[in-house]
Design a protein that fits this description.
The protein is α+β, with helices and mostly antiparallel strands and 616 residues long. Helices cover 36% and strands 22% of the residues. It has an eight-stranded mixed β-sheet with strand order 5-4-3-6-2-1-7-8. The protein has a five-stranded mixed β-sheet with strand order 9-10-13-11-12, sandwiched between helices. Strands 16-17-18-22 form a four-stranded antiparallel β-sheet. Strand 9 and strand 10 (231-238) form a beta hairpin. The N and C termini lie far apart (67 Å). The structure holds adenosine-5'-diphosphate (ADP) and magnesium ion (MG).
């Protein structure tokens, strides 16, 4: 039989490798920015058109390449950064695989211009789908410019898989932030569709963070510094009161490389223990410097994961450094009486008045006199319970008839027993009575058995459908604020708000001004309390930023979901009887009552059969 194994041609192998390296325009941005940094650039420009679908260009003033290197840089496994496997353990550069340019050139139209300082002229190469189409001598400044056009032009499936421009641009900005935060000693600029989105001069770390996330960030930052033999930690954590509902601003850099580590994240979260309301996440911008020999970055192709030799020590050091800073800057309570009591109380319990349950007993009621006319003092609930009442005494009938003479004795007994029996009666008397369990679930009876409703999810569903309706019919009612509300956001957050502005207005928001880093609001939807506005918008922005993967992106839908999530009754909130019933009724009036807007069950049922089985 003939041999069937063949070596793949280079361009095919490159395309396959590209699948791993380049998932979306943002991956190209990351690779090109990192190459510029590795080339020793001090000024780096990123130019984007159509969220990178049309153009991604990075221009640097780094060391440039010779003619031969320029040509070689597009070969797979061609790198100037390591020579032997041993070098892998001494990595001081971002790149080392020599895969990025080859991969990008396999799936896009790439134009490279590069010149070294000592040369008079530079080299220009055009390469399309791994084929070099031209190579020229050009006049170009020192450094390198790489333009990537028509990404995925030869892989339509990939191109179609790209998300909306808004989403892809956000991913690009995320990568840009990560790189810019890791290198405050370099200057970065980003242009999107011809206008400047970021201009970050060389600065200290605090200034870099503020330049990216807006002026309001400055007051939030608490410095963290720690130096030991194995590790140097520097950077900032956000004060607890600025914690976010989502993990937006969490940045770890190890030797200037952005990494994700659930383990180290946990170390920080635990340093914040007791300082954050549940469900809130601290912001942090932390740089760890470790000996490159003690880490292995080679375990993930996109290189945001990392393996440390001694994770446990790192965890402990990080946790104590953060704890120490929070204590030192008087953020964490040092003495008990300094403690702000509001930190301990989940906010939905604050200012909550607890009512003692009232048990009403009608002392004049005589259960043995069926023909008794309701007196004025009798509570209305009793009226209809009279007939049910008999059944409780089935089997006792003869006895009670007998003792009817001895009224005083019976009366005394019945006062006690009827007290408790009647309060039960009062509840079961309505067909669909409700009961709140652990301030979390609403239990109700249905024909076949029992219904347990998750109050938070149910309310989300109700609000979600209401907001969607308001937005589509565009006739939400707005409530005018007495004083305009000023809210501060970062440039990026304002960008997102701008995209959502129209939809927000359909829910009842009125924006009087949208500035570079703030908005002014003069009206809010009728159901939204003024105090919640900033939380809602913040939640909304981070929801948009972290848009659930593979969910169909629709701003309206996301907005409705996000607002429903922010405004829905929380777990832990006590509900009055009528509120409970209202919630149940509203839920079942919904189009899709059985799932929350994020597709989680809003209620479960348990049939009498199932309950019966439990008693066997
Ligand atoms: P890696 O970065 O892993 O080495 P790349 O494919 O990203 O692989 O780049 C290949 C080589 O091209 C690099 O090792 C470097 O020598 C050269 N190179 C890439 N971009 C630049 C740049 N902006 N300036 C100078 N040299 C570059
Ligand atoms: Mg590289």
């Amino acid at each position: 039989m003939a041999d069937i194994i063949q070596l793949l041609p280079d361009h095919v192998a490159n395309q396959i490798a590209a699948g791993e390296v380049v998932q979306r325009p943002a991956s190209v941005v990351k690779e090109l920015l990192e190459n510029a940094i590795d080339a020793g650039a001090t000024t780096i420009k990123l130019i984007i058109k159509d969220a990178g679908k049309t153009l991604i260009q990075v221009i640097d003033d780094g060391k440039g390449m010779s003619v031969t290197d320029a040509r070689l840089s597009f070969e797979r496994h061609a790198t100037s950064k390591i020579r032997t496997a041993d070098d892998l353990f001494q990595l001081n550069t971002k790149g080392f695989r020599g895969e990025a340019l080859a991969s990008i050139a396999a799936i896009a139209h790439v134009e490279l211009k590069t010149k070294q300082a000592h040369d008079d002229v530079g080299t220009a190469i055009i390469i399309e789908g791994s084929q070099v189409t031209s190579q020229d001598v050009v006049v170009t400044p020192k450094g390198t410019s790489v333009s990537v056009k028509n990404l995925f032009f030869n892989i339509p499936a990939r191109r179609n898989f790209l998300k909306s421009n808004a989403v892809e641009l956000r991913h690009i900005i995320d990568e840009f932030h990560r790189v810019a935060l890791a290198h405050p000693n370099l200057s970065f600029a980003m242009y999107n569709n011809g206008s400047e989105t970021f201009n970050l001069p060389i600065s200290n770390y605090r200034q870099r963070i503020v330049n990216i996330f807006g002026n309001k960030t400055n007051e939030k930052l608490v410095p963290v510094e720690e130096e030991t033999e194995v590790l140097k930690i520097s950077g900032f954590v956000g004060k607890p009161e600025f914690a976010k509902k989502t993990r937006g601003e969490q940045y770890f850099f190890v030797n200037n490389r952005f990494i994700k580590s659930a383990y180290l994240n946990h170390a920080i979260a635990s340093a914040f223990e007791g300082l954050l309301k549940s469900g809130m996440h601290p912001s942090y911008f932390l740089n760890l410097k470790v000996n490159p020999e003690t880490i292995d970055i080679n375990i993930h192709p996109t290189k945001t994961e990392i393996k440390f030799d001694d994770e446990h020590t790192l965890y402990a050091l990080l946790r104590s450094a953060v704890k120490h800073s929070l204590g030192q800057f008087n953020i964490a309570p040092v003495l008990d009486f300094d403690k702000d009591p509001s930190l301990d109380t989940p906010y939905n319990f604050e200012k909550k008045v607890t009512n003692t349950p009232v048990i009403e007993v009608d002392k004049n009621f005589n259960p043995f006199k069926n023909d008794v006319k309701p007196s004025g003092k009798q509570s209305p609930a009793f009226k209809s319970t009279v007939s049910n009442w008999d059944s409780l005494y089935v089997g006792l009938e003869s006895k009670s008839n007998d003792s009817q003479q001895d009224f005083s004795e019976v009366h005394f007994e019945s006062e006690e027993t009827t007290g408790s029996i009647f309060t039960n009666e009062k509840e079961t008397e309505q067909v669909n009575t409700t009961y709140q369990l652990h301030n979390k679930y609403i239990v109700s009876t249905i024909k076949s058995g029992m219904l347990v409703i998750d109050q938070h999810r149910a309310h989300q569903r109700i609000l979600y459908e209401k907001f969607l309706k308001n937005m589509t019919i565009k006739e939400a009612v707005s409530q005018q604020l007495l004083f305009p509300l000023q809210l501060h956001f970062s440039v990026q957050e304002i960008q997102i708000l701008n995209q959502l502005k129209e939809d927000l207005e359909h829910t009842g928001f009125v924006f009087s001004k949208v500035l570079k880093e703030s908005v002014e609001i003069t009206g809010v939807p009728i159901s939204v309390p003024e105090s919640e506005v900033s939380i809602i918008l913040e939640q909304l922005i981070s929801d948009v930023e972290n848009e659930v993967p593979d969910a169909h992106f629709s701003a309206t839908d996301l907005l409705a979901k996000s607002m429903a999530k922010s405004l829905a009754i929380k777990t832990g909130q006590a509900l009055k009887k009528d509120e409970q019933e209202h919630l149940v009724n509203k839920l079942f009036a919904c189009k899709e009552p059985n799932v929350s807007p994020t597709n989680k069950a809003t209620f479960i049922t348990m049939s009498v059969d199932e309950i019966d089985k439990k008693f066997i």
